[in-house]
Write a structure and sequence with these properties.
108 residues, 3-stranded antiparallel beta sheet, alpha+beta, 2 helices
């Protein structure tokens, strides 16, 4: 476990390029998620993988609302799991009336 100072300075603000535990050979430095559309049947989560502040991969993952399953899983299970965690958090946040999620709702 890194020291608290190292966590604060190198790990908690997005790019951790100064962290000695970061693999030198890596595909991306950061992954960003957002919900690009939603309706009663689906939620579309868009992702962008960045390397040196530039996009190296992007795409969308479609989640079915009825069962919480992803219709087109990402081939990298780590990115898939991060997208699932993002969506679970997003669905739990209060939003404008008429949006899909109910505050506190768990996404299976």
């Amino acid at each position: 476990m890194p020291e608290p100072e190292r966590l604060h300075e190198d790990c908690s603000l997005g790019y951790a390029s100064n962290c000695p535990r970061l693999p030198v050979q890596r595909k991306s430095d950061a992954i960003r998620f957002s919900v690009s559309s939603e309706n009663e049947a689906r939620v579309l989560v868009t992702f962008v993988c960045e390397r040196n502040h530039l996009p190296v991969e992007y795409g969308s993952l479609e989640f079915r609302v009825q069962d919480g399953m992803c219709a087109n899983s990402h081939p990298d299970s780590r990115i898939q799991r991060m997208a699932e965690c993002f969506l679970e958090s997003w669905l739990g946040k209060p939003r404008f009336q008429g949006s899909l999620g109910v505050p506190g709702r768990e996404f299976p």
